[in-house]
Amino acid sequence: MGSSPPRPQMKRSTPHMLVAALVFLVLLFVAGAAVTVHHKDRRPISPSTSPAAAEKITLSRKMLRDKRAEAPAASSDGGGRIRSEPLPRGIVQGESNLEMVSMVGDPEHGRQKASRSLLAIPVGIKNKAAVDKLVSKFPAEEFALMLFHYDGAVEQWGDLEWHGRAVHVAAAGQTKWWFAKRFLHPDVVAEYDYVFLWDEDVEVDAFDPARYLAIVRREGLEVSQPALERGSEIHHGITARQTVAGGGGGGDVHRRFYRRARPRCDEGSTAPPCTGWVEMMVPVFSRAAWRCTWGMVQNDLVHGWGLDYKLGYCAQGDRTMRVGVVDSEYVMHRGIPSLGGGGGWSASAGRIAVRRRSFAEMQIFNRRWKEAVAADASWADPYPETAAA
After folding, report:
1. 301 touches 181 (CB < 8 A)
2. What UniProt keywords apply to this chain's record, in alphabetical order (predicted)?
3. 69: phi then psi, degrees, rounded to nearest 5
4. Cβ proximity of 150 and 124 under 8 Å
5. Is 101 exposed, middle or buried (0-12, 13-18, 19+ CB in 10 A)?
6. CA angle, 65 as apex, 63 and 69 as ends, to 5°?
7. Which of 39, 154, 345, 370 is 20 to 30 A off residue 259, Cα-Cα?
8. Whole-Å CA distances, 291 to 192, 193, 195, 300
9. CA-to-CA distance for 219 and 253, rounded, in angstroms?
10. Rounded-to-integer distance, Cα 212 and Cα 226, Å
11. Residue 202 confidence class, pLDDT cut points 50, 70, 90
């Protein structure tokens, strides 16, 4: 008989091999449990689970659900890249205007061309006649119109010819800059070449808006104002109409002011209010200058004091050239106080309180400006002499 082949012998398990197998099984079990909790969110909480462990599991599930709910839906831009915007780019309309739109008819063919500029005025019913003369100077085909009713009276204006084309906003006791910050966002008025943000107490007998804008465009002014006629309430000499050659004027526009007294303005003066400066009663802003100015207007500082010294930063270039006063188109500033009454105060006491608040706002604005400059290491001041002054 031949000999049978040798039987294969089983290797005997060693203690080390048993330990390794046990560790592998434990790891496999833990991984499966983790997958169940984090991916299927179905791990049961048994009665024997401690309160602390049960709270941890519940919290983990809630956080996972919240993250899934907050995550934006991803989409491809066609080139393999993933975008997370909720809307397709082509449907987003980021800019608007203040033009009236009909509720009937063909929306595609009934669309009207937007006016080229905007006139916005804070108004009170006591100055109705003066406002009517002012608005009537601005042709409807060239100017959109927005009225800020600081006394809340709107219906009383309904008998005026232009009432129906105006956008009326009413909020009792609020200032021009309060309205402007909330209702003249740059994206809303982006279709207008210029924004006229004027007070109501001006007379425009010698003013023509079309000629004014022709001069502004020709001279490259981004921030401007019409000069103030002699007899106006004038706070700074640079706003007065210059008619004598050698006095900083004599033409259509002057950009600087010369005066020996305080504030001293001479050939070497490059800071406001000697140059690069207009006042806040009848300013006119280009589209780009208004976007910059709107950002600078503080939400809680409503009188605008201090802004006029900084408008040159919004001039889209050299403020000594792009900020100016138009002499050939001038207005009369009557200086009639419109705010300050009410609240149980007399008119004079109310005006004093408004002036005190305005001065306090200017101090706050100047402090915020200095803090912002100090905090923004990437910003370089193009007019460091202003800060030094």
Report:
1. no
2. Signal
3. -75, -35
4. yes
5. exposed
6. 115
7. 370
8. 11, 12, 10, 18
9. 8
10. 8
11. very high
Superfamily grouping for domain 117-339: Spore Coat Polysaccharide Biosynthesis Protein SpsA; Chain A (3.90.550.10)
Residue 34: the pLDDT is 46
Average pLDDT rounded to a whole number, residues 361-389: 88
pLDDT at 106: 75
Confidence label for 85 from pLDDT (cuts 50, 70 and 90): confident
| Tokens describing residue 30 | 């833990």
What is the C-alpha separation between 276 and 236, in angstroms, rounded?
13
User: Residue 247, Cβ neighbours under 10 Å: how many?
Assistant: 13
pLDDT digits (tens, 9 = 90+) for 252-292: 999 999 886 666 888 888 899 999 999 999 999 999 999 99
Query: Beta 194-197 vs 117-123: how paired, if at all?
Result: parallel
pLDDT tens-place string over residues 25-54: 656 555 554 444 444 444 455 555 565 555
**Domains of the chain: which residue ranges?**
117-339
146-201, pLDDT tens digit by residue?
999 999 999 999 999 999 999 999 999 999 999 999 999 999 999 999 999 999 99
Give Cα 241 distance to the centre of its chain. Answer: 32
245: its two tokens = 């050659």
* Single-letter amino acid code for the residue at 386: T
CA distances to 63, 220, 292 from 255, rounded to whole Å, are 62, 12, 20
**Residue 205 burial (CB < 10 Å; 0-12/13-18/19+)?**
exposed
